[in-house]
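Re: weekly structure request thread

Next one in the queue (878 aa):
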Amino acid sequence: MSFSVSSWILLFSLPICAQQTYPSAGSFWVGGAGNFAPTDSLTIAQGLRTYQDVVRWEATHADFAAWTGLQYKQYVPNFVALDYMYTGQVNEDGFFLGYEPKLREIAIDNGHNYEDFFLHYQQDTWLNLTTVYENQAAWAGIPVGIGYTRSTNDTGVTLVPPGPWNADVFSGTGNGGYFYLADPEKFAEATFFFQRGGSNDGTIKIQYASAVDNYFNITAWSDLTSITSDSTHNFTQNGRIGWTPPADWKWAYNPVPNKTSQRYAYWLRVSPGQSYRQRPLVNNVQTRTWYHLSLYFGSGMRMSMMPPPNIYVKSLGWDSLNDLNHDGYLEDNEYANLLDHNATARFRYEARIPWNSIGNEPNRTDCFVNTANLHYRQDVVQNYTWWWAYSGYNGGYNDNFWVNVSNQVIQVRDGGLLANEGLVTNGHIQDEATNLAYNAGFNETLLAVKNATSTHWMGTNIYFINPYDYQANNVPFPQLAQQTVNLGVYDWYILEGTIYDSWSMVDAETFFGPFSGLSRIWHIAAFAKAGKKSAIMTRVGSNLLTPPSTQRIWERSQMGILAEYYLYHFPNLTSLQTIYENNSNITALTTTSNYYKAGVPANYAYQPHDMIAVDIGIPTGMLPQHGVYSPMPYTALVDSTALRNNTVIGNSISTSLNHPVYGSIPVLPTATYYLDTIVSAPYTTIVHDPHGHPFPAEVVLARQYSKGMVVFRTSFSAPTNYLSYSSDANVITVSLPGSYQRVNFDGTLGPLTNHVTLHGFEGAVFKTPVSNLTEPITSVNNSTWKDTVVNILVYPNPWISAENIQTQMTFTHLPTGSSMKIYSTSSGRLIKTFYELPETLHWDLTDEAGENIASGIYFYMITDRKNNASHGKICVIR
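Done, posted below.
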């Protein structure tokens, strides 16, 4: 079966996504936009001197960006910038600046109950966690706002928990100062600890925010008259103060100016009702803890004396039967006389269902939302509609998609009964009906956002779960994948963990560098067939790159990653970003702990831009015409027992795959094939499919492009010794199906060759010599080079050294503000880039490094601010 080049060009000329910046590879950023000026001398010499230069470079070297990108629009006005979204979970503590506070504002303005936006346990539930990652949060009894002011106009003093503080919080009372205390939800108790108690002649006055303006600034305070107990005896000794939360207590903006990280909450302020002769000095404050490590002995034997006990995190349940007066809070008498002893939450919010990493950030715990709640959906749509219109975002990137309610993210040891909130009736959190209803609501919410904003860039991250990798602990219900892929919700997916720097990793089942992983990422071909874009976030690691590393190791690592990417690239449907282990520091400069030298902008260091600037054409969709080659088989991870793993479901020239769980899956062929197979090799093991047929111990995979090809050598599974497998002692030489020039890391071309020598986990990209090409130099979409700006003049052309005293070539009648790229027609390498051009440009015939260009024919492309283009050829003779 074969596919013609013309069919590929026709397919990828469809306006599915933005046009690729590079001729043969897509590129994107997540968490980009460098904030630091380079300090590496070579980077500075190449033109990146300031952080603005870095931002400009990133804007012109990627097709789109997520979780960043608005700053790119100042250099490329039509740049596609995507907002960061976290729709499936909402921060329980409510202090994450941006989305959560605005969503609550909208809910309050619309008269919606914000608590209805969450899922809740109806019974106390034990989660299979033995540690809690972060205890600086409200659920751990740490108030999110503590501080005091010393006068009416004082900027305030923030008290960062835990103490001791020895804080004289009432020192400025006579000048209008107050002691402040806050939590993200209404709270009903606080325990105070003192370095020194106050004198017995003083009293305290506690007030709550009872009125706010349209911007949620506090406009009135009222006395808290519902105090039920005060064992501090007016702050004279350590103790607890309890109260019934007032019905008119308002959620409000922070009244203490310098608490920039703690903005919105339910605020109390405390002042002496009668002055102290000796003021109390506050050492610490604690509020109610509702998540905590708890002993568990088994069902029906909680807290008994039967050994051995196990320790789990106890998440509380809320049963409205316990709330006799229906005020949303269990007063002391209600709590002491529970009708349902298996539900011990005092507030409904204490029963929210947290993601397993409870408290994964300070003052922040992500909890699952009730995606089926129509008010939640309405308010989410309203939020993104106004925000994207205001900010200029083109769409959204929803992080951690499919962090659903399966046991991969909620490991329930006992309990798990879900409150009846219109999602399911008396279902457990991991039941099939719960998962399907949650996922359907999740998709419907994003679809509503997409329709309301008219975006064509709704994307998501499938790092946690590949929809087509069936595993009982990840995707227990195959309908989830079918439901998601078949709906017209998503235009693109970020595929984290798809391609790794495999020769520095250790787990073939997790990191898809070894062939057992590469044979399973056919889901890119399935997404492409469905018209969805795959943004492939590749990673380099640290096992064999332990600093100080070398330039050779880094270059070889990234050449391998690029070759792996080209094995699955679909023009205008796949894009590449390479990061170091994670993208947390992608805006920073490199150090010797994450690169072979320091001071280079991360995206500039990790993107092999010189290599991908070389035009190797488009995938041909065919195996080589000469020789006998086998298409690469595709395998599926069928279950978590490994009994049916490595099930062959089709191959790279198939148009549909026969999956044992999902049935027939349409795909676009990649035509990746075995350039060579090795039955038995050092440092490898033989793996069999479920029918007992062996796979090759290692293979050299290859794929043909219209102007080149790519190869990648890999073992089927993790080698027994990574270091030895990738060492100089383990190399093989393989014949190529023709003569090619190898693309070097700097974009230059090697000598003509018909063979390649490869280490273990080494890849290579090859360019077909210009004389052997059967088609002119074009981009993937031929219309890219169509002249729409036609009056540009270039002189002298040709430039001949013997006839020109000055070493320059002049371009005139340029559109003001346009950009120009100059390429070598012999190698396809990008030679020079100009930005914000004047009407006339004088070029000194040097490349980006300041070196004189060699004799030859060069290709230029000029693009104006409206994306109109003009191109032509120039000749230099030295």
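The chain has a mean pLDDT of 82. The CA atoms of residues 191 and 240 lie 4 Å apart.
Next request, please.
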